Amino acid sequence: MSNSRHAWYAALIFLPVLSFATFTAIALQAAPQAAPAAQSPGPAGQSNGPAPQAPVFNPRPSYTPAPVPAAGRIHLDVVVTDESGKPVPGLGLQDFALNDNNLPAKILSFKAIAGNIPPAAEVILVLDAVNLGFQAVARSREEISKFLRQNGGHLAQPVSILKFTDEGAKVLLQPSTDGNALASQLDQASAGLRTIARPAGAYGAIERYQLSLQWAALIARSEAKRPGRKLLIWVGPGWPLLDWPGIETSSKGEQQVFNEIVDLSTTLREGRVVLYSVSTGDSNIGTFLYQGFLKGVKTAEKANPSDLGLKVIATQSGGRVLGPNNDIAGQIDACIQDAGAFYTISFDPTKADKPNEYHDLKVEIAKPGLTARTSTGYYNQP
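Given the sequence above, the corresponding structure tokens read:
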């Protein structure tokens, strides 16, 4: 094993993936409304300074809260697309079949949501200035501005924008359907969208992996607390997969990774947060490698840091992976089409024999040429 791989292995053991107590405190540039940061516990209860907090938005348009779900019931948002990838409205319960671990599951509730019921979903754009170079960040910002100004600046769904830098995630633009106003604000804020050079090699990759995954989880948890469906579109290819030949993870590290997989998967599904990845033509992080990690992880022994890659999580949440190409505006448009028409279904899972028992999920549509996208699995509890 080379020296660099020895270094990677050591870092993976001693720097847990998402154990917040072990992270160096990261200053948050939150919105003015943010509450004072909580203290992050250190060894023996000592304080390590401010713990990272999720970005805080100004008050958003009110939503009608959904009914409290029955205890233990699984709720799914399902997007059905045709062969061209466009969402298909107008389907009924009779068109859907649900399989839980390859066994038929009875659909207990069904609702079709049309895009003419505003807002069908919220859109959160995350501009990644940690895993992209300066030129790619600038190009992505220009494409976001282009997207916002389309259709005379009239946005079908409320859109907000976060920027993710070495200092954490900050609310750049508050939710609005006024694309022209958002684009103008984004142009004025462009000076703050800078990137910082990072160490090359194993340590640099691990640093970006941990920082990115930490803040992705914080953003997801923050959005999951709000009612309604959220489309979280990450502008960038994501963080390094850390899948290098000859690398082995300790059993403790595998358990940590597995715990985070369970937590993030459950947070996204229960919070109705769907993750997407869009990227520029010069972004090639895990362009195809992520496809080898799409199968659900059933045990800690099978857990790999790459199972927490952005594109892996996006696909498993029912979202999409688009690019790389330079039409970021078109990619965002394609993602937001998912808010135009979708369906909500629910079912009661079977009793689990053990904690965090993984179940594969698959929704099939009776009509030919149609494909359903939703959460690809869930972790069941006794």
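The mean pLDDT is 82. Try to locate this feature in the token string yourself.
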